Amino acid sequence: MIHQLTLSDVLAEHARSRPQVTAVVDGEVRLTYPELDARVTRLANALAARGVAAGERVLWLGQNSHAVLELLLASSRLGAVFCPANWRQSADELAFVLDDLAPKAVVWERSETAGPLSGDGWIAAGADYEEFLAGGSAEAVPESGDDAAPVLALYTAAFDGRPNAALLSSAALVAHSASLLVVRQMEPGFTFLNNGPLFHVGTMMFCLATLQIGGTNVFTPAFDAEEVCRLVDAEKVTQAFLFGQMIDAVVAANAGGKYDLSSLRFVSHSAEWDAMTTVDDSPWCRSKMGGYGQTEVGGMLTFLGLAPDAAGFAGRPSPLVQVRILAPDGSEVPPGETGEICARGKSLFSGYFNRPELNEARSRGGWHHTGDLGRREADGTITFVGPRLRMIKSGNENVYPAEVERALRTHPAVADAAVIGVPDERWHQAVKAVVVLKDGGTASAEEIAEHVKGALASYKKPRHVEFAASIPKKGFTPDYDALDAAYGGGNYPGS
Amino acid sequence: MIHQLTLSDVLAEHARSRPQVTAVVDGEVRLTYPELDARVTRLANALAARGVAAGERVLWLGQNSHAVLELLLASSRLGAVFCPANWRQSADELAFVLDDLAPKAVVWERSETAGPLSGDGWIAAGADYEEFLAGGSAEAVPESGDDAAPVLALYTAAFDGRPNAALLSSAALVAHSASLLVVRQMEPGFTFLNNGPLFHVGTMMFCLATLQIGGTNVFTPAFDAEEVCRLVDAEKVTQAFLFGQMIDAVVAANAGGKYDLSSLRFVSHSAEWDAMTTVDDSPWCRSKMGGYGQTEVGGMLTFLGLAPDAAGFAGRPSPLVQVRILAPDGSEVPPGETGEICARGKSLFSGYFNRPELNEARSRGGWHHTGDLGRREADGTITFVGPRLRMIKSGNENVYPAEVERALRTHPAVADAAVIGVPDERWHQAVKAVVVLKDGGTASAEEIAEHVKGALASYKKPRHVEFAASIPKKGFTPDYDALDAAYGGGNYPGS
């Protein structure tokens, strides 16, 4: 009990330590920490009256909203598990999630996609949700007490043809937040604009780190460049969930200088962007942002910001984890050799919901097996090589799509590229590149293949190059199943 | 297992992630992380051969040395408990510690004070220690695996006439380090000069945070201004354990500018100091350093750096703890009222070694009772009022010595002051001030009392003022038992 710190506890402390600080901004909604705490208590009591007990699941189906944070914190207060579901998924996919997770309560947003999906007893976001919350008692909820219990479920990529809900405990989320506070050098007053999808760990992890340090979370349904500008100006936002083309869109939306974006302390991107914002010197922003991560490690496992001038593309581990590069037999491989990236530590997940066999397989030997290949460089930094199951076997050689994709993207005419393995009678598999050319860019298949040969070992050169208008994506990574289906991939030895 | 991160694990990760980084500098000794890891393995195996198993205690008796860190890490590797004992204590006090802790191994430094204390089988620091370590096997130590197990024992102030060993687990120490990394904005490359005593949590906590981020720990036996200058220059030290008069001594030692101290990133102190060093902008250095802490919370519980412009003298809680101000019946007192500072969270200790009754009393209701009084201000920040057991009852009024002491120290002629309660027939107790005047300062007892009356409620004014050449201290705080004995204190209602 003395060592416990649940997400609910974090909120309870802020309600006392930061009575005047704004916790949440969402459209007309503005809540101080005491106000958020009071609403979360009512919501928890209302959910409890619906039968949500410790261990039960609560589902959100909708775009970003302060209700996502409220439902997560109310679930924490009850010892229950909250899942923000992907509202972009199809009705079939959602039906699978509902059957898999069997939530005791669903809060759902009326929208074009989700409209037809209403179920018995579902609570509609907006007025119905407010009425439901207001009906909850204001009395203190009895302490649930166990910060090692799962509190957040996020569905992740399918390993066996179906998605799996990664379970994260309060302890893991608090630890991961601490690592982000360290690397991003977040301070009280930090204001985060939640414009990326909250069903994805990439946005959720910054939302939670902002909560942890007692900052302000601003919610907007989804990315809209003009709205991002307006909110940054109005709320003095410190950081938003922005990358490459999104940043360009923000720069374009503010070309006339209508909005003051100087409160944004962010990574250097372009002369226009740097002039509009404040280039930040924290390790997270100073180097190339990011590192290596996945939902199962709470977000980030390694940080580029902890390894300036690193040889490895993924940087060094967070101060709260250990990483080992392991061979299939569980032994550690020496630096320079490729093996599976495995991890232990304070921010790791608690397994997948209702997947005992998969959990046993992925935690064998007391290490979480990420399913991704990597290696240690001579300087101790980590290189992410690619997903283990996508390794291509060509003759006796292993080819990792990510490596070939990086080489392809350095060709001046290439906008995007993905690599798959296609069955080959003689070599078992052959490397095939699917390439998207830039507007006005031209290159032949031979030129593309030769470009890769100039950068990598000759056996990694694509034997087949096919041009396409776009690469299908799952989140930020190529949808390899769709690519295999469309371009004839298969015969992977790791599958 | 997946969530485990012991201090030994932290070292094992750095040995892989930071193969070229210097972990330790101590005189002629320079060790990279892989070298430190290899020595710690040998030391752990040598200690195991001596019978040190999980839960057994290992004692260090000596000044600062890299051996302190090695023994702590080797103890962690074995699941054992390491105690760096206060080498300044008397033979009687040490005899109590030896009897209380019953260590399986003692490493001890020959010195004037500790010389006569040698015991059977004790290992002398220096050549004997090196020989002992070299005799240990280089084989990997079987994993101990439990980061919730105590690994560090630090003796703290007596509550009942004898000191108690506060037990800190790896999990608590790792969490506390994370909070320091956040507030001090420590980064890889951080170099800490261990010039304060490592048997005190104040130096130990920075040593461990430096380990956590993969920085460099420089050891020097004790504070020496010239040696501090030399080491800062030679090792490019980022931070040392320096306060007020120590900083003035460093400035004096470097008056001629012989040493380059610009690598020190520290708090602003004086024009000369600021010119020699780099004034740091982290929350820890930006505001007045510090906050409220004690060994039992891992070091710091609250930070001034998390509460710029705070009303409360102690700032706001670390992001990894909760604080409650509780009445004797366990209920929470409202803001503005004084109660006991109580805490929960990731950095808290695991109780005192071998003190079941005290542990039960101090953890009642699931909250660690610090034994200190405090209050929440209207802005949510915390004020430390003073030790609960030292509260003075004068008439129906409670008087807290710390408050009166702060008022006394604002008098221009006062160098130092301490306040006790003396028995009083009419009022139960009366406030008595023991005052040290500055060189050349003059003030009468009446002037001193009137000065306090001008700052505080009239009943807090000292009825008795006695002048002294110095205030007896225990570490950084007045030794109230000695003061009571010398100046007639007693009759405290909290005792």
Structure description:
The structure is a homodimer. Chain A has about 500 residues and is of the alpha/beta class. The first copy, chain A, has four domains: about 5-210, Rossmann fold (3-Layer(aba) Sandwich), CATH 3.40.50.12780; about 225-285, no CATH class; about 290-390, Luciferase, Domain 3 (Luciferase, domain 3, Roll), CATH 2.30.38; about 390-485, GMP Synthetase, Chain A, domain 3 (2-Layer Sandwich), CATH 3.30.300. Chain A contains 15 helices and 27 strands. In chain A, the strands form nine sheets. In chain A, strands 2-1-10-9-11 form a five-stranded mixed β-sheet, sandwiched between helices. The model of chain A has no long low-confidence stretch (mean pLDDT about 90). Chains A and B meet through helix 1, helix 6, strand 16 and strand 17 of A and helix 1, helix 6, strand 16 and strand 17 of B. Chains A, B: This is Long-chain acyl-CoA synthetase. Chains A, B: Its EC number is 6.2.1.3. Chains A, B: It is an enzyme of class 6 (ligase). Chains A, B: It comes from Planomonospora venezuelensis. Chains A, B: Pfam families: AMP-binding, AMP-binding_C.
Topology:
The structure is a homodimer of 495-residue chains.
Chain A lengths: L6 H11 L4 E5 L2 E4 H17 L7 E5 L4 H13 L2 E5 L5 H11 L3 E4 L14 E2 L2 H8 L15 E7 L7 E6 H15 L6 E4 L6 H12 L3 E4 L5 H11 L3 E2 L3 H10 L11 E2 L4 H6 L1 E2 L3 H4 L4 E4 L4 E5 L12 E2 L3 E6 L12 E7 L10 H7 L5 E9 L5 E6 L4 E3 L2 E3 L1 H9 L4 E11 L3 E10 L7 H11 L8 E4 L5 E2 L2 E2 L1 H8 L8
GO molecular function (chains A, B): long-chain fatty acid-CoA ligase activity
Protein name (chains A, B): Long-chain acyl-CoA synthetase
Organism (chains A, B): Planomonospora venezuelensis
